[in-house]
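Running co-folding for iron/sulfur cluster.
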Amino acid sequence: MLYTQMHELKNILSLTDAQVEELKQVADRFPMMIGTYYLSLIDQTNPDDPIRKMAIPSLAELSKDGRFDTSGEADNTPIPGLQHKYRETALILVTDQCAMYCRHCFRKRLVGLASKEVASHWQEIVTYIQNHSEISNVILSGGDALMADDEALVQFLDALTQIDHIDLIRIATRTPVTFPERILQDTALLAQLAHFGKRKQLYVVTQFNHPHEVTAQSTAAIKALLHAGCIARNQMVLLKGVNDDPAVITSLFRALTGIGCMPYYVFQCRPVTGVQNHFQVPLWEGLEIVERAKASQNGMAKAFKYCMSHTTGKLEILGGSGSTDMLLRYHEAKDPSLYGKLLRVPLEKDACWLPDNFDASTVLL
Ligand code: SF4
C-alpha cells in the first residue's frame, strides 16, 4: 500500500487532528508518498526517529529560506531533461516520480509534481549525446530512475548502450532502500539490466542514509542488482537528526561494505528551500563527523569523498587550515581549468554552504 495523504497516517503515527491538518499544508506543497515497507522501518513510538524524519512531512519545510536550484541545473540544460555540466558526464531526468518523496530532496522543486523538466524528447537527447564524443558516461536520474516505466528505461538503455564513446551508465535510484519490491518482484527489469549490462557497465547509485535502512529486503535488492551484473555504489547525504553522528555513519558504512554497496560520496545537504533549515549540518561540524566516521572504516570504505555540489563544480571538503579556513578541491568543475584546483575558503563556524558571493578565483591556492 502507498500512503499519500496525511490522514492515512493519523493512527499509525499517533497524530492529532490538528497535526494532520498542519502537515497536510506541507504535503500539498511538497508531495508525500511512503509505502508499507519503508513505513515499517519507522519506530512509531519515537517522534525523532531518523526514518520518520526523511519520510514524513514537517512544518520546517514551509520555511521560505534557501532556493530551489542550488547547483545551477537550469543553466546546464541544453535540452529539457538533459543536463551537461561536466564535460564527460550527461545527466538525464527520466522521471519525476519516486517510490518515496524524501523530505530532504534537492530536487524538491520537481519530484512528484508532473514537472516539465523531465525528458520528453528522448531521441533529441540521444542525438545530442551521440554528437558529443567527449561524453563518456550518462547518469539516469530523476526523480528515481527505476520508477520510470520499464518501456522508457529500455528505450534509453537500448540507445545509450549502443553509443561507442559511452563507457558506463549510472542509474540513480533509492528503490533498493525505500521500495525493494520494485527490484525483487520485477524479474523483467532485472533481465533488462543484465541484458544491457553486457553492452556497457551499469552502476546502480543508491542512497542509504541510515543503518536502519539496511534490512534483509534492501540487502536482497542490492544482491539481486549485483547478480544482474550491476555495480552498486552509495551516496549518503549528511542530514541533521538522521546521520550527523560518527557512530551512525560508521555502522551504516560497515553494513554497506558488507553487502557490496560501496560508499562513494557523502554529500553536504544543499541549501534548498524547505530543506536547509531542517537538515543542513554546518560544514565544520560535518567535517569532524565525517573524519571521525572515516577513522573507524576499513580501507575500502575510506575511499568515499565528502563533497558539495556547487554551481561552480563538485568540491571535495578536505579539512581545516588554520582556525577559520577550510581546504576544498574541485573534484569536478564546470570550468575545466578549475579541475583539481585547491581552495582555501574562510568559513564561519556555523556556515553550511559557501557564501553567496563566492568567487573561486579569489581563494585559489
Ligand atoms: S528518491 Fe531521490 S529524487 Fe526522489 S525524493 Fe528521494 S532524493 Fe529526491
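Result summary
The first strand starts at residue 2 and ends at 3.
The domain at 74-307 is CATH 3.20.20.70 (TIM Barrel).
Job closed.
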